[in-house]
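Hi X.,

You mentioned you wanted examples for the new student's onboarding notes, showing what a folding record looks like when two proteins sit in one file. Here is a clean example. The first protein comes first, with its sequence line followed by its structure tokens.
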Amino acid sequence: MAKRRLSAASLRFLVQLAFLIGGFGIFVVLGSWPGVMAGAAVCIGGLWLGKSLFRRRATPEEVRADLRFRRDTED
């Protein structure tokens, strides 16, 4: 039985979603200014990590499909 590999785009989405939820949780727990700064840092870190994981794991076909999708939804 062949193992199914998670696509790079799905992995990027799941990582960014997890960091976004964590950032909102930090904002709720810490409150006003420290929560905003720490939550924003976690969200930005998740965006960066998701992008770097996508670049590392994506095949050339996945990169082309991602670029095509971004170009089509740009308008």
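Then the second protein repeats the pattern, sequence line and then tokens:
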Amino acid sequence: MATRARDSAPATRRAGRRSSRSSSSRAVVPLGYDFQVFMKALLAAVLLVVPGSACVFGQDDAPRPFGSLVRSIGGDVTRLVTREPAIVLALGGGLAVLAKQQDAGSLRGMTRSHRLEEALDAGDVAGNGYTHAGAAFAVYVLGAATHSPKVENTGADLIEAQAVSGILTLGLKVAVRRTRPNGAHYSFPSGHSSAAFATADVLEQHFGWKAGVPAYIGAAYIGASRIADHQHYLSDVVFGSAIGIASARTLSFAHHGHQVRIAPAATAGGAALVISIIPLPLR
């Protein structure tokens, strides 16, 4: 379901950017306020929408034929308007509106350090939709070949999440046609971010935080790389992240009831509300 319109970056453009780095006399500077704003926005999105406990799907003991998997994608797309995915998208939209005020500042902050740009280069390939779709199919095939329903169903859910994420991301890209920082088109939302966060959320739901934390960190890394590479603005990345999580939540919503918990929490700057959306087994 990934397409070149999602987040493609021509090799010549990347080569040119690397060439300009080597000839530039810009100084390497430490991470500043703008990068902190970016990371806080992504962290806020994750804290607001991830569950308070791991969600393990109830179908791991039954194999899922590929035909039924394909047929279920349409239903997954329609579940984007159900409660939990809709809440995720609404929160992501609100955060994206707030992040838009930091688009220019975050772009400057992420692109003024050669060392930071080089450190984030791997995000271009790691977050590509083809990479995530290919990995999802590989997990599914591995599970089927080894007769492991757990692995097979993880792969199936990864495929479905990538399909839903790809459909919504591509549709918005074509509809919005926002110009990228580098002058190309299809900036909003970030397809790399939506693909990475869809994968991260499925892994967290299947395997808990031991898999979820590294996956979310990797997804945040990919989002940062898109800004450093002049491919996206901060608001593109924030809403792309919400799309990925919401896409994964269409799968959990199909098999579970949900409980919403709201609790106060102390922060360094004052106080905050922590919202947990917890999938519960159907009775």
